[in-house]
Amino acid sequence: MSGAALGLEIVFVFFLALFLLHRYGDFKKQHRLVIIATLLAWYLCFLIVFILPLDVSTTIYNRCKLAVNSSPAESNGSYVTLAPSKQKCFKPWSYIPNGIMPIFWRVVYWTSQFLTWILLPFMQSYARSGGFSITGKIKTALIENAIYYGTYLLIFGAFLIYVAVNPNFNLQWNQLQTIGIAAANTWGLFLLVLLLGYGLVEIPRSHWNGAKRGYLLMKTYFKAAKLMTEKADAEENLEDIMEEVRKVSESIKYNHPLRKCVDTILKKCPTEYQERMGRNMDDYEDFDERQNSYPSEKSLVKLHKQVIYSVQRHRRTQVQWQILLEQAFYLEDVAKNETSATRQFVHTFRSQEPENKIIQYFYTPTVEWYWECLLRPWFYRVLAVVLATFSVIVVWSECTFFSTKPVLSLFAVFIQLAEKTYNYIYIEMACFLTIFFLSICVYSTVFRIRVFNYYYLASHHQTDAYSLLFSGMLFCRLTPPLCLNFLGLTHMDATISHRKTQPTAYTSIMGSMKVLTFIADGFYIYYPMLVVILCIATYFSLGTRCLNLLGFQQFMGDSEMTSDLIDEGKELIKREKRKRQRQEEGENRRREWKERYGNRDDSTRNRVVHADQKESSFSETNINRPLSKYTRSNGRTERDRIELLQDAEPLDFNADLINDDPLELDSGR
């Protein structure tokens, strides 16, 4: 079992990252390199979170073994061993042999840093580029990232010159490497505290509000009004872009050198627009450079980029609208079924997706009613209280983790109590729950935030390539400082605990931050205290109120604009509900008609087929007769018949010309 735990977690985390990426990305339509790069970034970050508790338990066992093999006063190199415990050290079930974890952390860390600082920014520009060739996209990506890369190279070059000129500094390669790691972690910690302060309050509050049916329904109406505005804007923008594409397609004919670029743009357009442009286009006209002015390749690249963005946005709003409608219908059904006397959950509309028979067998309407109307609100309330308790513990520990005598950080107290008894399962569970809760607070904020239309993680395969790559960048920059913050909260970091004990393998890869004392003893210790201010600001919704004052509609119960949007969304949901009901009524009528008259139609169809078979057999017997005597006349008659059919003009159908009187039909004949 020495490496089994590590192998199982590596496989489990891979499928977890693959599942989340499949939920937000689209494997069929997005580029494979984008999927692979995003999957690798998410996988490495999740892997660090899941493997770090194993590193902590392995380090505690190594400390125990080192303490047992040496005396209390004996020093072992640069480490001073702890007093041996009366209990004998035993190897944990998840023990990882020496030498594996340093190599593992080194590969994972530097790969994630290469992704976040070099590869993913380049791929972002490559994915958003409107170039028609790989060379053109690479050129555009290099130009867009020239300032980005040049700024870092300039800062790094100035620092190297300062170190070389100043005789007081004698930095070696390891120290220079530590400075680079400290700079990256400082940037990540700055963003980490902002996201953590929001998540520590918003996650418990969202679960508490999840137990309020009226609150969720009002917020859904509010979202419906905002999404309808965005949906209409996306449709209007797509129409404008398609009109521009139509003009370009009509001006550039089939034998123009830029026609291949236009065909590439047309392939990115929706199918209905492609068919419309194909019908209105005449490709048999030659182009004349003297008479017509044609767009340049640069303008086509810009148009290609606009088409990709507008089509993606239009598709995303359409899918989100359907999802929001289902959510609104569900919440209205819950509100109706709460007063049901039969205690059976009744849906207004049938589910469009086929239900699993096993789930349908166990999750009966009665079970669904008890869960949705009785148990689920209480479950959300209890979960909100538990999460709020964790948030309070995190805030307290963030403000007191620098205190070692006495130890005030609650997470450090829990780990040290388990370390005395060498209860490795408890250590790993405590470490996993702590870092998992911190990760949920940070990562969920990354999934929730939206920077206009440039960055937005939309579920149901509606996230664009730029947002996927940007999320991978954020994860790679936030995870290392998150893990260092966790090790500081549990006093497993020697820089915080001030104990000369054997460090974890992850801390040894990061190096000693004593090279930059103002960061190790100042910023890393006192900056996390700002999480208290951010939690207070999030609790009173100061950010939401500021955005509302700036004109960005936010859901606020005491706002007149919010009430207007709720009323508007309620009317939109009613309209869509009536439309859905009319569609289902029409389908039910057609189904009843088929069930009632289906057999009669089948018998009529059988009689028609039988009559056709008789007629065909009669004609075959006539044809098989000897026709040598009438060959010429029959051939002439056939030719006359064909000519008459060719000369005949089609008649326009007019319902007024139909006469239902059989007597007039007979007289006509």
Keyword list:
two-stranded antiparallel ribbon, 669 residues, 4 strands, mainly alpha, globular, single chain
Structure explained in plain terms:
The chain is mainly alpha-helical and 669 residues long. The protein has a domain at 3-69 and 89-207 and 386-543. Helices cover 72% and strands 1% of the residues. It has 23 helices and four strands. The strands form two sheets. A two-stranded antiparallel sheet has the order 1-2. β3 (450-451) and β4 (455-456) form a beta hairpin.
**Uncertain spans:** 72-86, 614-638, 640-669
What is the overall shape? globular
Strands of the biggest beta sheet: in what spatial order?
Answer: 1-2
Assembly state here?
single chain
CA radius of gyration: 35 Å
Outline the biggest β-sheet.
2 strands, antiparallel
The number of distinct β-strands equals 4
The N- and C-terminal alpha carbons lie at a distance of 96 Å
Average pLDDT level: 80
Q: What is the helix tally?
A: 23
SSE string, helices as H and strands as E: HHEEHHHHHHHHHHHHEEHHHHHHHHH
Percent of residues in helical segments? Answer: over 70%
Strand-residue fraction?
under 5%
Helix/strand/pairing category: mainly alpha
Protein topology:
Blueprint (H helix, E strand, L loop, with lengths): L3 H21 L7 H37 L6 E2 L2 E2 L19 H29 L5 H11 L1 H20 L7 H37 L3 H39 L7 H10 L2 H9 L17 H41 L19 H6 L2 H36 L9 H12 L2 H25 L1 E2 L3 E2 L8 H25 L4 H4 L7 H6 L6 H10 L4 H9 L2 H8 L10 H64 L7 H17 L14 H7 L1
Antiparallel strand pairs: 1-2, 3-4
Helix pairs in contact: 1-2, 2-3, 2-14, 2-15, 3-4, 3-15, 6-12, 6-14, 6-15, 6-19, 7-10, 7-21, 8-10, 13-14, 14-15
